[in-house]
Amino acid sequence: MSERANQPATNRPPVTADVAPPGAVPEGVEAPSGRFRLPTDSLRAYTMIIALLAIWLFFQWKTISPLYPYGIFLHPNNFSNLLQQMAVTGVLAVGMLLVIVAGQIDLSVGSVVGLAGGVAAMAQGYGLVPSLGLALVVGLVVGAVQGGLISYGNIPAFIVTLGGMLAWRGVVLGLTKGATIPVQLPVFRTLGVGKLTEGFGVAVGALAIAAVVFLTLSRNRARRRHGLTVPSLGATVLRIAVPAALIALFIYWMILGGGMPVPVLVLLAVAVLGGFLTQNTTFGRYLYAIGGNPDAARLSGINIRRYLLAAFCVLGLLVGVASLLHTGRVGSASPDAGTYMELDAIAACVIGGTSLMGGRGTVSGAVVGALIMASLDNGMSLLNVENYMQYIVKGVVLVAAVGFDMLGRRKS
Amino acid sequence: MSSTTNTPLLEMREITKSFPGVRALDGVSFDLHGGELHALVGENGAGKSTLMKVLAGVYPFGTYGGDVVIDGQVRQFQSVRDSENAGVAVIFQELSLIKELTIGENIFLGREPRRFGVIKWEELYSRAQKLLDELNLSLDPRTPVGHLGIGQQQLVEIAKALSQEARILVLDEPTAALTESEVETLFRIIEGLRARGVGMIYISHKLDEVFRVSRRITVLRDGRTVGTRPAEELNEARVISLMVGREVGDIFPEAEHERGDVVFEARNVTVEDPNVSGKLLVKGVGFKVRRGEVLGIAGLMGAGRSELLMGIFGAWPGRVSGEVYVEGKRIKVSRPSDAIKQGVGFVTEDRKRFGLVLDQTILNNMTLAGLRKLSGRFVTDVDAEAAAGERAKKELRVKANSVFTVVGTLSGGNQQKVVLAKWLLTNPRVLFLDEPTRGIDVGAKQEIYAQINRLAREGLAIVLVSSELPEVLGLSDRVLVLHEGRVTGEFKREEATPEAVMACATGHTQRAA
């Protein structure tokens, strides 16, 4: 898992700061002789970042015009917009990752986004907390029911969630009688479109940098205590400085764009939590083992059913979160909300290096995958690429990403 | 049909086959005449299956040394299809039928009678019916194979071989899964095939059957031919001594372990086949192990050794009954985690399938079973884990750049050490080892042996299952022998001669010592 966690803080501004510091550790052991060997997984992470940067530069170049001599794509306004667009898919991808890593799948995600959002909108009359809370409860309950059928009922996840995709959509249609319900609570709306004030943004950035400093130093202490090699002073400084600089730049850029969007903050929080869950808990470790080799996991005393159920519950909860972001952003809950979102989430995971066979994949990869997809969407819209072409390009990118991955794996 | 022609139907000359680190066959010669039944016997791992895979084209021409000659002509099989075309049919222990398809579909799989690519079902089923009738099997060829018992499936395999007009039929442990009446049916069919001039190679651990049906017997040992004799010149005792007749050698450090109190006891363990209800794979087996003792469990393939351990460990998919005691206290085990909590560790057989998550690091594999003890109940402590992993790596001498190396890239011996480390990191009181040296090279084997002795010296109770008789005899303080799910013998270290153990393993109960 070291390699996985290793994708150092050098990567993309928006998502990194969180996931990297807790994991950036075991490197010291990896290359004690000073000979630096890139593990294949982190090599893959670098290719992904390079691909992302290439996409960004390409769109930046293509959007140069007399009005914007440096291009529009990375302009703070557009960039902030792009991140808002990806927040929903990103949150779903983090949840989906847990399930896919364990060798499962969930096709019902889009319908449940529609259901949870619809329920939340209908419950607005009971006040803010019941309304938002109900969306989370709906997600959790659906996750628990489907996860229970899958793990304790031995019905394949593909079947259960395919049925769920149809059935939950039916439930939304029935509940709302096909009507679109507007969002009236201001805070609900803020979840989707709000932006943090400058002061708040700076505070978040400062907090993140403080966390990086604290985690890096406490990490060093722990390694000394266990008699493992401790990174040199220079390396430690670098490990703090690089992420800190990226965080600062990111916050600055967001402020230029009118303030850090609330959904982006939610996505960052979800990504940090998801990263922690996968890399730093027994739960996460067991999911990788279950997906990688269920027989070995079972014989090592892991209660597979319990952990599969838990993974579907976490996904369900995140689907609830995503439904709020989506409904808030659109400004209303329509009965067909969320259609095809499961496919976007799965695609984000896969582009991010997750194996559908289970056992491989990272939260940061899934988030970058979502970012790549959102960048393509946003960039092609800026260039007025026709709709049909956008679908084709995204489809080709998905297949090509996995194709390259297979090529690289075969060689190694 | 003359069976005494001078040119043999099949001749395998000086066959040599190597795998990385192992020479599985070393100049083995074997021949077979039409209408003859020639038995091939030897311990597990003696090279019987490898030899048959050469014959069947599983290992294509060029990957082995020596010649396969059929009808006086050297053959160069590239694939199983080539050998089938030359009239070779092999019925392996693991049946190759597709359960969802019917008997007829299975018999003609890949060779369906057809016109313009459309299958002629009537012809297929009428030909299948004719084959079944020839074998005196009252079965409807439209029955899905999954509905048949294992014994009948085996007979369907034979029908399939006949449909290919096989002249050389290899039967690998054909009676392992059969009931007595099915065995009689099989023997009748064998008689009929012999009369039709089919040459048969019969592989079996059951020596009484071997003597009943075969005309000649070839004994393999360690990839070499020990001898080929007419059956009437041999008896079971003689065959056993040919099978085991080898120096146990001094690769096993002579270790007299200090034995303490009984740590672990299993009583009256019975294990049922999950697929065939009522069929018992282990029938009322019990044993005790003391602190610092190595208990060896010997037996041939299918004797129920792994099933016994899996059953005790709570990992068997079928029904299990019996009582388990750890340090005199009865424990209830319904899943592996229960056993692990009570201090039972289990280095399972087939490390790639049951032992390791190949995509993950050495460290993650080492800490998988003991993660909560080593690292914290929910939040993991990567550094505490890394420290424990580094210690284990050093102690077991795992050769790898670091504990963050992916396990799938290691050699078999090092992978096995990782599995061992995984269980040692759970702090077990008793450790089961199932085939701990399968498929690893000699040097790594010796290292594993040394570790087993060290662990026993340090007071661990060890239960060792191995198909390699010398390994069991060389390491164990006591040897339990299983045959078809029952204990047929128990020996102290000094009484456990290869001949005596092998006799029990082939079904004789222990002579009163």
What does this structure look like?
The complex is a heterodimer of chains A (412) and B (513). Chain A is mainly α and 412 residues long. Chain A folds into two domains: 2-26 and 44-59 and 79-194 and 261-411, ABC transporter involved in vitamin B12 uptake, BtuC (Orthogonal Bundle), CATH 1.10.3470; 195-258. Chain A has 18 helices and two strands. Chain A has helices at residues 2-6, 13-23, 27-30, 40-62, 76-101, 109-122, 128-151, 157-176, 186-193, 198-225, 233-256, 262-280, 282-292, 294-299, 304-330, 341-351, 363-382, 387-411; strands spanning 181-182, 332-333. Chain A has a two-stranded antiparallel ribbon with strand order 1-2. In chain A, α5 (76-101) crosses α13, α12 packs across α13 and α13 (282-292) packs across α15. By secondary structure, chain B is of the alpha/beta class. Chain B has helices at residues 48-56, 80-85, 103-107, 121-134, 150-163, 180-195, 207-213, 236-244, 305-313, 336-341, 351-355, 362-366, 371-375, 382-395, 412-424, 442-457, 469-475, 498-505, and strands at residues 10-19, 22-32, 37-41, 65-70, 73-75, 88-91, 114-115, 118-119, 168-172, 199-203, 216-221, 224-230, 262-272, 280-290, 294-298, 320-326, 329-331, 344-347, 430-434, 461-465, 478-483, 486-492. In chain B, α8 packs across α18. In chain B, β19, α16 (442-457) and β20 form a beta-alpha-beta unit. Chain B folds into three domains: 10-244, 3-Layer(aba) Sandwich (Rossmann fold); 260-343 and 428-513, 3-Layer(aba) Sandwich (Rossmann fold), CATH 3.40.50; 349-423, no CATH class. Chains A and B meet through α10, α13 and α14 of A and α10, α11, α13 and α14 of B.
